[in-house]
Design the sequence.
């Protein structure tokens, strides 16, 4: 067993409006269940918001908070340090960035407090300049726009990442996995196994596990060579390569690959590659105000007209209509 922690560890959960309840509750429940298995309160937590008031999750459930950021900064200045500050975010995270919170997060790091983010919380950490040259993750939906905005961060598509005291997590049930990693480090495998039994979790996922395999069925695993080819596609969306070049080193013939793609993904490799690029474009259109021609280039299209044609054929509307729909939705929110 790892060295057992004897001092209670305090987690400060900072709730950003529209945060994802699943990601937050998964993290807290992992800590609660660890306390239950251990038989004492090894972990404690409190909730914080920008102004100390109620915060609504994206599902409409509201939470009272225990403190505001100003009070947390005062406590930190008096030497009252939590073990970890966790940013819990979700939809529209960019609307809720503010200078006092960013300053507080930097002060936490300067005082040796570990930092974590759930779901889109990495956006706030990046704005606070805490992710420069750091390995980090964010929910796959926000990955394309995050990469475009924060080029100094080393963004991954895995479930969670830990780099220099900063933990970032894709959200959802991956929050549970990240907390299990912390619990394992503190108390060892026996406690983690007990938590998993109580939560009906049959496997502890590792930081390197991927968030998703786009457009794949949820049942059964893909052939490993196909998975490798898809990873190469995802790495080259901005500057796409011919499929034959992507296949170099793949231990299958072109005919075998074509058959596997059609059987397991219902399309050809070239069509799948195109779907990945168009999905990236759709996410960029929905989350950023970047000119459409720049979205086209960032998605591997050299011609705006070709991009618009392919986009309309796939989604039944133009890129301009997607952008307009996004603007209307923001206006109604």
Sequence:
């Amino acid at each position: 067993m790892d060295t057992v922690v004897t001092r209670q560890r305090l987690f400060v959960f900072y709730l950003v409006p529209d945060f994802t309840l699943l990601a937050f509750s998964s993290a807290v429940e992992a800590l609660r269940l660890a306390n239950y298995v251990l038989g004492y309160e090894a972990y404690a937590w409190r909730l914080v918001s920008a102004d100390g008031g109620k915060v609504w999750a994206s599902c409409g459930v509201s939470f009272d908070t225990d403190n505001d950021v100003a009070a947390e900064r005062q406590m930190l200045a008096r030497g009252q340090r939590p073990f970890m500050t966790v940013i819990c975010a979700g939809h529209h995270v960019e609307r809720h960035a503010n200078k006092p919170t960013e300053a507080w997060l930097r002060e936490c790091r300067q005082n040796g407090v570990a930092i974590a983010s759930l779901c889109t919380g990495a956006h706030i950490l990046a704005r606070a300049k805490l992710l420069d040259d750091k390995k980090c993750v964010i929910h796959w939906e926000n990955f394309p726009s995050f990469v475009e905005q924060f080029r100094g961060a080393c963004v991954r598509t895995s479930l969670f990442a830990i780099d220099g005291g900063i933990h970032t997590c894709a959200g959802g049930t991956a929050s549970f996995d990240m907390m299990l990693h912390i619990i394992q480090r503190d108390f060892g495998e026996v406690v983690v196994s007990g938590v998993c039994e109580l939560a009906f979790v049959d496997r502890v996922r590792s930081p390197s596990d991927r968030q998703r395999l786009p457009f794949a069925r949820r049942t059964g695993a893909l052939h490993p060579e196909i998975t490798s080819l898809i990873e190469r596609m995802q790495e080259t969306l901005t500057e796409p390569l011919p499929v034959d070049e992507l296949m170099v080193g793949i231990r299958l013939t072109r005919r075998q690959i074509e058959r596997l793609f059609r059987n397991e993904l219902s399309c050809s490799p070239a069509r799948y590659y195109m779907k990945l690029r168009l999905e990236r474009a759709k996410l960029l259109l929905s989350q950023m105000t970047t000119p459409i021609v720049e979205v086209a280039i960032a998605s591997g299209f050299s011609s705006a007209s070709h991009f618009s044609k392919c986009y309309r054929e796939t989604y039944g509307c133009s890129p301009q209509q997607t952008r307009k729909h996004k603007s209307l939705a923001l206006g109604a929110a």
Observations:
- The chain has a mean pLDDT of 93.
- Residues 9-199 form a domain with the Rossmann fold fold (CATH 3.40.50.880).
- The radius of gyration is 22 Å.
